[in-house]
Structure formats: structure tokens, C-alpha cells
Amino acid sequence: MNILENFGIKIQHLDPQKTEITMAVTDRTKQPYGLLHGGMNSVLAETAASLAANAYLPEEKVAVGVNIETHHLKAVTGGELSAQATPLHLGQRLMVYQVAIHLVGNPELTSMSTVTLTAQPAPK
């Protein structure tokens, strides 16, 4: 089982210039205190950025995360999150994406991340 299946992450739009994924907030993604676990914001951010960067790269390359900075802006207790990745830099070796996360139907940000990825040869 991969991370998309494990957390019910769905790809809504996949493009190097804008990728959107969604995930329902469930008990599986919450802290014991009933709040979304902050690590899930980072999971969503890196997943959206990785999908977008891999759509940008040629088939013989794969993008892997090398750095992520996540700001948790608002507590989330339920609903469905949307993570939208847009590029800040698309190079031959490094790609940098900004990922905005909010609840579906509410434009107020719950989290914001910057994800840096590097291009490596695809595994054979």
C-alpha cells in the first residue's frame, strides 16, 4: 500500500504548473487530541509537489524531496483538505514548489509549505 492509498489522498489535477490533491481529515490523520496531525500537512505538501515535479521531468528522471518548510496556520478538526502546488522554480536539477493547503470550500489557508526537490535518475 502506498501513501496515497493509506491516507485516501486523491489527485484532482496533475500538471507541472498546478497540481491539486485532496484528503479527508479522519481519525487516521489526527493527533490523539482530535486535531489534524501537523505531519499530515507536510505529507500533503511533499506529495503534491512531488507529483507536479515528476510531471515536469522527463521519464528517465524522478523528483525526490530534499527540503520542506511547513507553516501550520490554523487548527483543523474535520472536513476535506485541498493542497495546491505551484512552481517557484523549475530547473534541470532543482525544483521548488509552494503548496497552499485549505479546507475544500473555504479559501482561508490552514497550512503553507515550500518544498525543494532534486532530479535523480529513475530507479530501474
Automatic annotation (TrEMBL):
CDD domains: PaaI_thioesterase. GO terms for molecular function: 1,4-dihydroxy-2-naphthoyl-CoA thioesterase activity. The keyword Transcription does not apply. Gene3D superfamilies: Hotdog Thioesterase. Keywords: Hydrolase. GO terms for cellular component: cytosol. Residues 33-103 form the Thioesterase domain. The keyword Hydrolase applies. InterPro entries: HotDog_dom_sf, PAAI_dom, Thioestr_dom. It comes from the Bacteria. Belongs to the thioesterase PaaI family. This is Thioesterase domain-containing protein. It comes from Agrilactobacillus composti DSM 18527 = JCM 14202. The lineage of its organism: Bacteria, Bacillati, Bacillota, Bacilli, Lactobacillales.
